[in-house]
Amino acid sequence: MDTNNPIIRRKRHRKDPRIRLREGARTRSIKRGWGFKIDKFKDLKPIPKKCPILDIPLFIGDGNSTDNSPTLDRVGNQEFYYSKKDKYGRYKGNVQVISRKANQMKSNSSFEDVEKLYFYELLRKARGNPYKMRERILKALQNCINKEKSNG
User: Fold this and answer.
1) Cα distances (angstroms) measured from residue 116 to each of 74, 126, 143
2) 70-74/95-99 β-pairing
3) How far apart are the C-alpha atoms of 84 and 80, rounded to whole Å?
4) 14, 33, 91, 134: least buried by Cβ within 10 Å?
């Protein structure tokens, strides 16, 4: 099989996008000096029909990535599991396929940003002042936590 022929390579990648996902992750890992322990593209789980995070359909475009393109995401970033070289490693059980949109949201947003957006949308639908309602809810949650600590 001629892997240097771009037409043949593109057809193979379209047939099974795990090939491209694995190769891209491997290349990035090598450039950054991270560990990489996914020997074959078949070690990756099959591409799901929908993104497990956003529940949007995943599909392969015509060479340009979209929000619905599948991407390989590291599930855990636990530094204590790796040596210095493997600190941010990708290995068989530590990756999942999600949409490009979900992967970018995970990369570019803090938990606090997502929480604020969630409360804003939740309370906007309830027609309240999102900021004031968020503060009341967080205060109520903190009171519950304090009660649990004092009782436990």
Assistant:
1) 24, 15, 20
2) antiparallel
3) 9
4) 33
* Prediction pTM value: 0.64
Question: For the chain, how big is the Rg over CA atoms in Å?
Answer: 21
Say what angle helices 130-151 and 111-125 make with each other, to 10 degrees: 110
Using an 8 Å Cβ cutoff, are 58 and 51 in contact?
yes
Distance between CA 36 and CA 24 in Å, rounded?
Answer: 11
pLDDT digit of tens for each residue in the chain (152 aa)?
556 777 777 777 677 888 888 888 888 888 888 777 888 888 888 888 999 888 899 988 777 788 899 988 877 655 444 444 455 556 666 788 899 998 888 888 888 888 888 877 777 776 666 666 777 777 777 877 787 777 76
